[in-house]
Write a structure and sequence with these properties.
heterodimer; A: alpha+beta; Dipeptide-binding Protein, domain 1; 4-stranded mixed sheet; B: mainly alpha; MetI-like fold; 12 helices; 2 strands; flat
Chain lengths: 646, 324
Amino acid sequence: MSRRHTDRTDDDSRHIGRRQWLSALGIAGVATLAGCSEQGGDGGDGSDGEDGSDGGNGTDDGDGEDGSDGGNAVDVGDFPQFGVGDLYGQEVARTLARDAFEQSEYEYGFDGDTMVNPDGDQVEINIYHSAGQETSQLTAEFIAQELGQNLGINVVVEAIDGTRFNNEYWTAEAQGGTDTVNGEELEWASPTPQNPGPRSVTSNEPWDMSIVFGLNTYPLNPLTNEVFFDGANTFYNPVGYYPQFDVQALFEDAREATTREELQQAFVEIFENLAREQPYITLLFSDDLVGYNPDLNGPIENFSNGWDLPAWHFEDPSVSGSYDTVTSAGFTTLNPLYNTENGAGDAIARALDQGYTFDENQEYFPLLYDMSTEDGEVWTFEVRENLQFSEPYGQVTAEDFVYLIQELHQSDWANTAASSSWDGVEVEQTGEFEFEATLETPNLLWPQTYDPLLYPIPRDLVEPYVEEEDVDGLEQDEELLELQFTGNLGAFTLDEWNRGSGTEYTRNDEYYLRDIDEGPDLFSEGPLFEEASISVVEEQASRLGALETGEADSAAIPPEQYESYDEDENVTVRQVPTPYNTIISVNQRENGWNAGPGNLFQHVPFRQALASAISKDQLIEGVYRGLAEPHFTWQPRWSEFYPGDE
Amino acid sequence: MGFGRYVTARVLWAGVVSLIITTITFLLVSAAPNPSVQEAATQAALQGGDPAEAAERARELRGLDQPLYVRYMDFIESVYTFDWGWSRSRSQPVTEALGQGLYYTAQYSVPWTVLTVLIGPLVGVYSAANMYSWKDHAATGFAFFGYAIPNFFFGIILLLIFGVWLEVIPVVYNTDVAVFSAQNAVQLSIPVFVLVTGSIGGIMRVSRNESAEFQNAEFMKTAKAKGVSPIRAYAYHVMRPTLVPLSTTLVGQLLALFLGSSLLVEVVFGIPGIGRVTYNALIAQDTNLLLGSTLAFTFIAVIGNLLEDLVFTVLDPRISYDDR
């Protein structure tokens, strides 16, 4: 920790750019002119239908798909990567901006280097970032500098508290309404606070741009991205984005796909279009930084880091030592039926496996059961035959799972954490170790939704509560809370759960995973630690201290302390990719764009201009110390559904 | 009025006070909306059921459809029989949660209180005896330093020095070690040190000023004239009257510290004590646990005040309980 203090001067030198960015900012109030006009469908419905695009080198006449930017002097291609290479810089940004000016019914233009509104004044917009978060502030200042240099826009950087931003700017009272989108009448039949209605329905406070919130891109199950993009009236659309391609048809294709290829085709096309339309200006994916004991073998810089914990070990692969981790908050419950927290999920996972997981290639890996399907509608679950609960509950069979689903998850009284996952799913036992689930609508990516992920719970344990419909009894059952039924179903056995200080485990010699054929060879001896523990340490400085002294084998590292830990020989830092993105949300609703009449954010070329005015590489190097990946479409590069860019 | 009757009266009064506080608590809780009823209604609405009916059913299940006085009697009964309900944020009975918290808090607060009560007045009297000498300034400086530096910050610094650099104390508090073991004494030494330095400042100053008043009093002159040794003179003739006004502040101050500053120290050192139990209950909106800890602190405060009143009469024979 001493290094952190003495290295301060180094830290500052990395922020040299900061003063530069600050100087690019003028201090001025924000003009809050209303008078945005609603832009009708600007020709073309976008999609040119299925053309079997394989996402290869897109040098074809991709412009046809844009509809809106026919006279475009910039060929952005099938899968444009704004903000890098040819698609970064003043020239390309200004060319795209001029396209947008042509589309706008108001006279915006460039006066020398500055972008001016119809009154001839410089365009001035504001950007909000999270108050008190250095990275967020630096990102906003960098954006302001880039937009100032490359587009001549005066961007005012403002800090805001996340909760306040959510309540007053991001969400609004759901009102609903109708509007014309791509020439068709569209109704907001079930508005939400995150999509309260058409662009005319706005939040209380006007705002232009924000980097306060990042969103999940759901790389394992991209279908979930429906909530953001399935039409202008979808569930979550605070910025008022109107897709100009037929996104609903493409999502329909993805939903109905019966082969992996069809699925991929539909998704790739969706993500190419999103890369082009930039509903949110995509910037980057930042990595999670995790510090590990350098003697520990196993952690990988992968989304599935930790999936093969039973094969992790210290130095040589033999059973030794204790795997100790720290967490910032205590656990509400360890009852597998009612837990909804990630931290408690980890604590349960040490002692109790779930149905399956995903390996380092993000592929399905069967733990308790294997799942298979022909068409995505009927799924067969094959339960392993070497699974044992603790006495007196005996062997785990298909009956336990079916009972659990039908009598608890699908009941109207138990309110288990998984109850929403099993709505409308028909479950039937088809053998001692086999059962089938029939979905209402087929879904090839059902396992990736985590919906069919089950904990094994003994039927005999829960049956008395089911008969009485006793929720409190079920929630407070000691065997469930203290995980006393786990038999050979987990790598470790829970010894003690001290509510204030955490959990302690000892190695489970009988672990079923030792006898399976799949997976790494070391599974046959796993787990390779004598003991394990998770300690609750609320203070970050104390967690990091524990990591340095070796009392903890793993702890999260705050990004601003990356260098000092990276140089520390007592700690190995891993960069674990995440599906959460950093984006500029541009307000396409009527209370967005407070720089003059009209709302330029509503025009695709203008959003493209913004995206190509910001250098993703410089942002990642300058602000994120290289600990991030550039973000071009609504998937990270390692996703199976990422459009090809080679 | 004899001593016995005085004590009886004070104890009865303490009982009345606790009943009044419990009653006010009950009225506040029953006036507030019940989260589990709202939860049931929301759940029903989400699943297409009738929210009003679900709320009614939840109310019935929890006995909330009973008249107020019946619920009041039930509440009072469960409070005084220690049936304080289930803590949702910790998945254990409230009494167990509080018991666990107190178990860990007591381990550092007992030494803390004892040391504070011993060292504070001692340093104060020492300062007064050497008033305006370098010894006085050193003692005052020490007391003010501890008083001025925020406990959590001081704690982090000491943890950094002794835990991370010198590695003489563990960074992660270990709940496995026996209460009376060297290991436990070592891991609690720094938190106790931080708390003691934080709390003796005020006490030291009050006792310094109080004893300054007494050291030139008539009875001190008499004692000195009779040849009483300086130690006995200070310990017996100055310390005792000094402690009387001090004892009023002591109890109140320590109770406040119990909840307030101990929370921050518990967070820094990872001690799962009562401060963190209460704070997390507040954050998690765990009504039962919050109510339980409020009641626990109420009872502690009532008993503390009772003890204070009794200690008065022992410390200073001039205060009689006859006219109370």
